[in-house]
C-alpha cells in the first residue's frame, strides 16, 4: 500500500490482492489519510485484481467516517473485473463515488459532490 499527498488530496494506492491478510495494512493507510477533518481521499484501485469483504468493510467505514467529519472518499479505477464483482455481488456501488482514474477523482473532489451525494438529509415537501 502506498499513501501520498498531492495538491491537498490524499491518495491511497491499493495492491493487487486486497484480502483479509492485507486488509489491516489497507485500513491503516486509509485511516492515516482520513485523519484530518474535511480530508479528501482517493483510493486508487487500478492495480487491484481481487478484494474480499474485509476490504469492503474498510471502504464503507472510511466513507462513513469521512462524511461524518466533512470529508469525501472517491474510488478511482479503472476497476478490474474482480473489484467490480465485489461491488456488484454486495450491491454496495450506490454507497460510493467512483471515478474513471485518479485525474477524474481529483476533478470530482475539486468540484463538489455529485447531486445524489450532496443531499444526504431528506427534503421536506414544499408547500
From TrEMBL:
Biased composition (Basic and acidic residues): 116-127
Annotated GO MF terms: anti-sigma factor antagonist activity
Region entry Disordered, spans: 107-127
Family matches, as InterPro entries: STAS_dom, STAS_dom_sf
Residues covered by the STAS domain: 1-90
Domain of life of the organism encoding this protein: Bacteria
Pfam families: STAS
Protein name: Stage II sporulation protein AA (Anti-sigma F factor antagonist)
Annotated organism of origin: Actinacidiphila rubida
Lineage: Bacteria, Bacillati, Actinomycetota, Actinomycetes, Kitasatosporales
Chain segments annotated as coiled-coil in the UniProt record: none
